[in-house]
Each structure stands twice: as structure tokens, then as C-alpha cells.
């Protein structure tokens, strides 16, 4: 299959008739118009098979997640997603209809859900599967939410359950390891089913991110573990934080674990793609009065630098490592 037949056969259905797109797939470059009084927000994420997702991950989930993680970055800025560019290098054995069809369907489904258009990209042959997605979005001028705006006294919030994806990944890796050693551990193999969607099909908090414009002082999406990503806000804002681990929203399956295991998944696991943000107490009250979205207060911003942890208001020590890319 040639590159051009691959593109037209499998990726054309990921396009939309967005009036902002002057030229899309099929030319050397895409050409887009900018909405008036808006700023362009852009991000890129690269996913490598065996590094960012297990080799057993379905083609559909790979396609879906490669877009979702980028839309989560846009959500963390309060942006409205517009379009994506896709670069994919893949082995010849995957450049076949039975893999490409579900892969591109995963891309199409999440693009349709958030009204996002594929406007261009590149494909090539490789020994391993590598996917790189660039996402473009818009935010009203001056209203983007960054990491550097946290203020002393702010409430620290998250948008949903933390640690579920990391727990699911651990069970999958345990099952794969047991299979390699011919160990029959069916219970381990079955455990991820309840939480695997949190790992494979995360829902970027796009609408919530937009609603938080004018309410949140700082924001980040949780991709590398709550501890590490909140730490980025603290560093950028030159403040500290106290977080009560008992306040973190937790799936019942995760809640049943020993505390240290649960905290490891929540603080250091990553792949949650929930939002972590800070806002004044006044804005917290106003937001809850104006919107029905659930947001969860887990701590406060303080003057003294660094992240301090508590459990039911009792100080505790726990090592923050986060996901390590190298």
C-alpha cells in the first residue's frame, strides 16, 4: 500500500467541514483561519509502543488515546480544540486494513466527540510503532490558564478520580509477566477490566477547562502523576502546597488497596488526564453555584515552597517520583 492510498483510504473520514480550514489533507501544508480576538494554543505528544502503552493495547485505543492526551493539554489551558496533525511511523505488518481501520476509527471517534478535525500529517515505515500528534486550539485573548498563576490561599482541586489508570496498567503488566513465566494467574488477568477504560480511553476534560476560565488561577493536566504535575504548578508559581491524601477522589477498586499502594498510583502513577487547578475560596464557591460539574478540593496553596502531604490532617512522608520519561 502506498503512502497516499493509505492516507486517502484510512484517514479521510477523520476530516470535517470546519469553516476555519481553508486547505486540509492533500496538500503540502494545511491552511487555517484564526477566529477573531483569539490566541492560538498548540501542543505535541509522542507515543512509543512498549514505552507509553503496552504492546497488547488495541489499535482502537492507541488511535483514541494518541489524540486524547493532546486534547487534555489543550483543556489544561482552557482552550477550545480545533484540529490535529498526525505523524505515524509503523511496521509493515501494521500497515494493513485490519489494524489501520480500528486505529483510525479511534481517532475519528474522539475527534467527532470534541469537534476536532485532522488537517494533515505524515506516514512512514519503521521497525516500531511511533505516533506523534500536534493539537491546535483557540482561547479568547488573555484568558489562557497557565501553571504560573497559583496564589497563596488558593484551594487545590482535581476534576475526577486519580490513580485508576496506573492501577490498570500495573495489572496488565503483571498479567503479561505471568504469561511470560507460564504462571496461571487468571485473577490478575481479569482485574484490569473494571479500570482499563481509564488507561486506554481517558476522557479529556475539555468542557470543564473552558468553564474554568475566569475562575482558576493555574492549571495542569495530570499525565505524570499528581505529585509531579502539581509540583510543576508550585515551581512555576513559586509557592508551596499542602495536600490531604484522604481528599483525593478514588475508585472503590483502588480504595481497597493498602494506603501506600494507593498513594503510589495516585501520586506517582500518571496517565489520569484529569485536571489539577487552583482557585480562590470565593471562586470555588461561585463555580459550584454556577456549574454542576463536580470538582474536588484536595489541599491548599501555602507560602513555604514544596509539597507537603497529610492524611486526615496528620502530616505524612511519601516519596514523589512521578513518571520518568528518561
TrEMBL record:
Keywords of this entry: ATP-binding, Kinase, Magnesium, Metal-binding, Nucleotide-binding, Thiamine biosynthesis, Transferase
InterPro entries (alphabetical): PurM-like_C_dom, PurM-like_C_sf, PurM-like_N, PurM-like_N_sf, ThiL-like
Enzymatic reactions: thiamine phosphate + ATP = thiamine diphosphate + ADP
Domain PurM-like C-terminal: 151-262
Amino-acid positions noted as binding Mg(2+) 5 in the UniProt annotation, renumbered to this chain: 224
Ligand binding (substrate): 52, 271, 323
Binding site for Mg(2+) 4: 28, 73
Binding site for Mg(2+) 3: 28, 73, 221
Keyword Aminoacyl-tRNA synthetase: no
Keyword Glycoprotein (UniProt): no
Listed GO MF terms: ATP binding; magnesium ion binding; thiamine-phosphate kinase activity
Domain PurM-like N-terminal positions: 26-139
Single biological process term from Gene Ontology: thiamine diphosphate biosynthetic process
Residues reported in the UniProt entry to bind Mg(2+) 2: 45, 73
Residues involved in Mg(2+) 1 binding: 45, 122
Family named by the database record: Belongs to the thiamine-monophosphate kinase family.
Function (record text): Catalyzes the ATP-dependent phosphorylation of thiamine-monophosphate (TMP) to form thiamine-pyrophosphate (TPP), the active form of vitamin B1.
Family matches, as NCBIfam families: thiL (TIGR01379)
Name assigned to this protein: Thiamine-monophosphate kinase
Organism: Faucicola osloensis (Moraxella osloensis)
Gene that produces this protein: thiL
